[in-house]
Amino acid sequence: MQPLDQILLILDIDETLLYAADRPLARKPDCRIGPYAVYLRPFLTDFLNQVSQHFRIAVWSSSSHDYVESVVNTIFPKWVIPEFIWSRERCITRFDPEWHEQYYIKDLKKVRRQGYNLERVLIVDDTPQKVERNYGNAIYVTPWFGDQNDNELQLLTKYLLQLRDKANLRCIEKRNWKNRGY
Ligand SMILES: [Mg+2]
């Protein structure tokens, strides 16, 4: 049997890994990036250290290019080197007629074009709408706005490690992952 490709794990940034606030919360931020007071989600460094040992890591955010680059340079441990760092420019824009506003979609077709097998790709995001074209690859996390008791990234590490040897990740029901396991 062929060994499986290492999974490509694509991470969102805002409200998934951190909270970048216009106005600081009642406590001191962990760092500042541009005009933002940045708070890191609990267990973030542990999470990045652990998953980077078992997965190929990439970053895809619908924020601006400069912001995304600064975030990766600031919060990623030096030895965690993403395969790619994508920002808004790689997203597709759609119009939501109900809310009368634009929104961004991360279409994994663009990832497939880079040569990745989508059966071995996972995308972690707090906004289901942004991955609506590829829900089979998505793991949704609860949006995070600074709660210090949150342990989502700890749970996510455990869950992801269970998926490593699954051949086709798109066939695995991942909704409700926190209760289900796989
Ligand atoms: Mg987000």
Automatic annotation (TrEMBL):
Cleaved signal peptide residues: none
Record-linked InterPro entries: FCP1_dom (IPR004274), HAD-like_sf (IPR036412), HAD_sf (IPR023214), TIM50 (IPR050365)
Record domain FCP1 homology: where: 2-163
Record Gene3D superfamilies: HAD superfamily/HAD-like (3.40.50.1000)
PROSITE patterns on file: FCP1
Protein name: NLI interacting factor-like phosphatase
Source organism phylogeny: Bacteria, Pseudomonadati, Planctomycetota, Planctomycetia, Planctomycetales
